[in-house]
Amino acid sequence: MKPLVGVSDNKICQYRYWFNDNGETLQKVDITPVNPLELSNALIEVPNLIPAKIPDDIQMATSSSATKKAFLLPLKMQIKLQFKDLADQWSAVQTDSFEHNSQVELEIRALTVNKAQTLKKPASKELVGFSIDVTKEDSLYWQADQPCMLDFFSPSGEKLCRFSTSESLKGKKIETKQKGIYYVLLHSTIHDETYNKDKLTIIGIGNNVSDTIEVNPAGTLPELVSDPEVIVNLTLTGYLNGTDIRFIRSLPCLAKLDISAAHIVEGGDTYYENYRTADEVTGDYMFSDLPKLTRLVLSNTTITLGKKALYGCTGLTELSIPHSIKTFGEKAIGGTQGNLLLIHWNTPAAIASATFDTPEEMGNCLIYALQETECTYEGNVIINGLADKIRLTDAKGFRCPTAFKAKDISYTRTFSMTSGNKEAAAGWESIVLPFDVQTFSHAEKGELAPFNSGKKGTHPFWLAELSTEKGFRHVTELKANIPYIISMPNSDAYEEEFNICGNVTFHAENDNGVEVRSTYSSAIVRSEGPQFTLVPAYETVWQHDSVYVINRTISNGNLPGGAFVRNLRNANPFEAYAVSKDSPNQAPAYYSIGTNGSLTGLEYLLRRAEESLKVYSIGRTLYIETNRAITLPIYDREGRTVRIIKASEGRTEITDLLDGIYFSGGRKVMIGR
């Protein structure tokens, strides 16, 4: 490096450098004036920076210390250099780029399984490390009360996974088959008006750790539990009276309760308000309003499930009814907010309407019942593998462990987005259903059908499937467990007759039963495209860096319904989400559906007539009047092109069309009728 010109015998006397445009990394080095300067042997220390976004491929360095751990953050670094001469002039900035593992060493805080730890809420760029000793748990359920990201590392130091801010807030499980000390890195804590606490609490719940306690005599459970605050998974045998049930209801962290081998007996305190236990009765309100319960196994000897016994248990997703139960109280199973997805009805007792909320309030809950079971409830009941009627509610979870048949099945979705055109994709939604759809219908417009279906007397819409070679391609059938994108015509540019806005029902029926497929992962179809995989979702898939969903509002310049956008929102039930085939560091922010999402070109069939264009018919003659020469397609009622007309300025007559209904220039005309 040579000094700037302007001073006789000028020399370089100082240089400075900094990294990634971070002023805090600025370093100045005074040197003996020299001309020219060579820095081939200069040692420049690269700082260990913490970026605003922690890279997904973060690693844990090997260390002999149990209380300190170093984490390696692969970063793209940029160094900028300037040189100063004796005239106090600085040279132009020189820039170079390189890759660097930024090493951050942290004090590790020890966590205990099933015990929450509260700490000062970290700053958004602050890293906090935890360790937890896993001795017998097969999995850990992690949750924080403030949104933050969590990275998990195995006892051998291998990176396992990352929880997004929404996943850590909602709670999620990791498998822990390997025993030993696991490490957790907490970072990217959110600070905003909604989440403005100055403390953060985190807990790891051992899902397979069960405190098994025999209660004998009844009423002694409070004395048998040494630390009620840490009880998460509880299995009880012996005898339970009101004192025991009252104690169970008071456990603050209880998530799983198994009393299948216990007997409920008379005696003890009131368990809820003025209610007392009776022999072999799961009494009125006994387990009501326990939203943290995610699993409940009832006593195998109980003969009655009382009024609102399980009401308000919004955390339950599955429930098994024992064979012993003979009677049910009013709304014994209700208030679940549609979160209860599955009931195994193992008793011959009748399934009555009074036992549940209305079918609408129960959401998509399936009830699998025995062959001899009588049923007066109009919900989604399957008796010996056959259902009379199944009604599926959009955006509510749906869980079908075993395929069955339904004589009548339908699903309804509300469409409201404005559709796109050849220039800009818009109005697309993703969809997946567990049955082959036979008919599509709209309350006002009547029967619908995909473009090119060949079905007469219907209103068209767009339906597309992902293909390996060409991306999305239009199809005419919606098959079970295959993800699609769908768009209903809805634009001011279209004739109102063809605009579809509001509820659309997807339906199938057969007296011998329509097959309803299992929704388990082994039964669903993941569609492979050139850039991403499209995955069906029957239960909520939480927002994450790896999850792409279709935008509902303008995003990254894409119109609503125009792109699959990364980490935008949750994927709702009956939607599909995309997973990029690129590495996490190279995956784009979105995948535009693009013009191949609107391949058909048949939107011209739907367009409003131009002011300067008149298309009409008299008898068997079609007339086109225009003030300029145009090329105009003529479509039949199914959207097929039957003629391309080159109309001259003035009036053009077409006299050889077959009788029927046609569309041209945004007009519907009738020939010969």
Automatic annotation (TrEMBL):
Domain of life of the organism encoding this protein: Bacteria
A matching Pfam family: LRR_5
InterPro entries: LRR_5, LRR_dom_sf
Protein name as it appears in the record: Leucine-rich repeat protein
